[in-house]
Amino acid sequence: MTHPGTTPPPPPDWLYDLARRAAERPVPPVMRPPDGRGRRAAVLLLFGEGPFGPDILLIQRSARGRRHAGQPAFPGGGVDPGDDGPIGAALREAEEETGLDPAGVQVVGTMPELYIWRSDNRVTPVLGWWHTPGTVHAASPDEVDAVERVPIAELTDPANRLRLRHPSGHSGPAFRGRGLLVWGFTAGVLDDVLAISGFERPWDRDRVEDLPPDVLDLAARG
């Protein structure tokens, strides 16, 4: 905890390096935003130093939601006119969804926009350092069921890594951590971030499982 009048600890070197590499990372063609389409949105990739080493803040979206119901995700949402861009939107949404105090966060950089065709969103991932962590919780029960600080070591544990296969035949990276099954867009961003940060450990990429029926049912809502 940082006491009043003291300077908060700076972000670690690895996070600055991650921000630099992530900003230069080419966007896969399938995730390049189409011209003139898509709602501007932002998500906050908030890293901190927890009791088990570096961690990242994730939420589990409400199972009652209409889009991405029940899915683990980064805090975030649409960019509103008063947000002053993606960074302001990411911090505002994180505060609304988790009770996060934005004053405890230092933004280190942003990643290129990524397009999610299913929700027609152009998403800017914002990289932040939680220099003064505080209590977080499901501050918006209609939108969020749970909030977790997930240790990076847990996400990179080979036992917690797999690929999940959709009935369409498409498969993508997935993670297990703190009782969450992270897949879809969030897992794709995490997979990339962990690889370029140097935290990734070798894992069995041939380990493929079908999306669980209950997860599939929630995802089918829209």
TrEMBL record:
Organism superkingdom: Bacteria
Keywords: Hydrolase, Magnesium, Manganese, Metal-binding
Residue span(s) of domain Nudix hydrolase: 37-177
Known cofactor(s): Mn(2+); Mg(2+)
A GO molecular-function descriptor: coenzyme A diphosphatase activity
The name this protein goes by in its record: 8-oxo-dGTP pyrophosphatase MutT (NUDIX family)
